[in-house]
Design a protein that fits this description.
- This protein has 16 helices and 17 strands.
- With 431 residues, it is α/β, with parallel strands linked by helices.
- It has 2 domains: 41-289, Rossmann fold; 311-409, CBS-domain.
- Strand 4 (105-110) and strand 5 form a beta hairpin.
């Protein structure tokens, strides 16, 4: 199957980001939790996870395998990055998942079903596929590219148009402006957005992304990485992402599988664990220098405790808000709208002499940072605002807490202590 042919998705779209339900053992290829599968298999399957179990691929005429006995569990809703140098088997491993390449041996489970027991087209209905340079059909408009698979599945024109417009909005491309354009009329970043929209056409539970941003300029690449993380907060897909770029892997991955030149996984852990405790000298050299700065650059706001401050709504009485602030021994509260999104700060100075509802009194908040943002991004946000705090939001902009300079200082102190502890352990092991 050529790269430019999109995977065939399920028979109809769903807009819910809720994880998939458990596999039905009556379905062809379904895995019964009692069949002796590896620990955690059933739990992963319930959330649309992916498993590779002792998977090997040998191409004819090659002395060494392209993929060597790889075992890997990707939990539903997480981004796992396959990271390694050229020739380490990253892309081959990915293509084994949707059977663009057939394994020589081993077992592959997708959403609780034996992938090798399924018709390849049935398998690909569960998996979106995004490649470098988007792989769009040049003679088709953006709308036709995005709606191609739903059309193949026999959807009506109105349904296809509604889905196309929904997805273009999702990837920040105004439908009225972009629906009728051709790929040649788009920038590289816009083409990649269309590629992502096409992969999401029927809301598959899993997505494979093969160096999708590798050909883009650094600024566009960083923007699309941020957009992918924001989309992931909203949609909760199971994503396997291939890259050879260490910084990209550390930024995007919930977990990272580092492959060596022998096509073996030498470490599989969170970015923070990999930076603090590289498995061996190969991993340490592959990561390069500046691990301390990488910890700040790629540790996430979600990994640190957030400060909780008094909360208020525009309709709250000023005296009650002041009492809440005083009780918390604070100097301010955060005002949330009806959807629990941060609107503004209100300080004790703003409340002086105010009676009745607080209304629109207070100071507009800085642009919130998201739980998936890095500590470096949090620091940059704090430097740019007049206050000493920045609101943190999760999916749909819902308020989660507040990050302060003190929050970051504590996080850095903890990282330094963990680094010192690892060095002491290394010295003890060498002695």
């Amino acid at each position: 199957m050529p790269d430019t042919v999109p995977p065939v998705p399920p028979a109809g779209p769903t807009r819910s980001a809720a994880p998939s339900g458990p596999a039905d053992p009556a379905l062809p290829g379904a895995i019964d939790p009692g069949d002796g599968g590896p620990p955690g298999e059933a739990a992963s399957a319930e959330r649309g996870g992916i498993q590779l179990i002792n998977v090997t691929k040998r191409f004819p005429g090659q002395a060494t395998p392209a993929v060597d006995n790889v075992s890997l569990t990707v939990d539903g809703g997480e981004i796992v990055v396959l990271l390694g140098p050229s020739g380490s088997g990253k892309t081959t491993t990915m293509r084994l998942i949707n059977r663009l390449i057939e394994p020589t041996s081993g077992k592959i489970i997708v959403a609780g079903r034996d992938a090798l027991g399924l018709d390849p087209n049935d398998l690909r209905r569960q998996i979106g596929y995004v490649i470098q340079n988007a792989g769009l059909f040049p003679h088709m408009t953006v709308g036709t590219n995005v709606g191609l698979v739903p059309q193949m599945l026999g959807w009506g024109k109105a349904r296809i148009k509604a889905r196309v417009d929904e997805l273009l909005q999702l990837v920040d491309l105004a439908p009225d402006q972009f629906r009728d354009r051709y790929p040649r009329e788009l920038s590289g970043g816009q083409q990649q957005r269309v590629g992502v929209a096409r992969a999401l056409a029927a809301d598959p539970p899993a997505m494979l992304m093969d160096e999708p941003f590798g050909a883009l300029d650094p600024i566009t690449r960083e923007h699309l990485q941020d957009e992918l993380l924001q989309l992931q907060e909203e949609l909760g897909k199971t994503i396997v992402f291939v890259t050879h770029d260490v910084d990209e892997a550390l930024k995007l991955g919930d977990r990272i599988a580092i492959l060596d030149k022998g096509s073996r996984i030498v470490q599989y852990a969170t970015p923070k664990e990999i930076l603090l405790n590289p498995a061996d000298e190969y991993v340490e050299q592959f990561l390069g220098g500046g691990q301390a700065m990488k910890l700040l650059k790629f540790s996430r706001v979600a990994d640190v405790p957030l400060q909780q401050v008094p909360q208020a709504a525009p309709g709250d009485d000023a005296a009650a808000v002041r009492a809440q602030i005083d009780a918390a021994e604070s100097t301010f509260a955060i005002v949330l709208d009806e959807r629990d999104r941060p609107v503004r700060w209100i300080t004790v100075d703003d409340l002086d002499g105010l009676t009745g509802p607080i209304g629109d009194h207070g100071t507009g908040t800085a642009r919130p940072i998201r739980v998936r943002n890095t500590l470096q991004q949090a620091l940059e946000a704090l430097i740019q605002v007049e206050h000493e705090w920045v609101p943190v939001v999760g999916p749909r902009g819902v308020y989660r807490g507040t990050v302060t300079l003190s929050t970051l200082q504590t996080a850095i102190k903890d990282m330094k202590e963990q680094t010192r502890s690892r060095r002491r352990q290394d010295k003890a092991a060498d002695s």
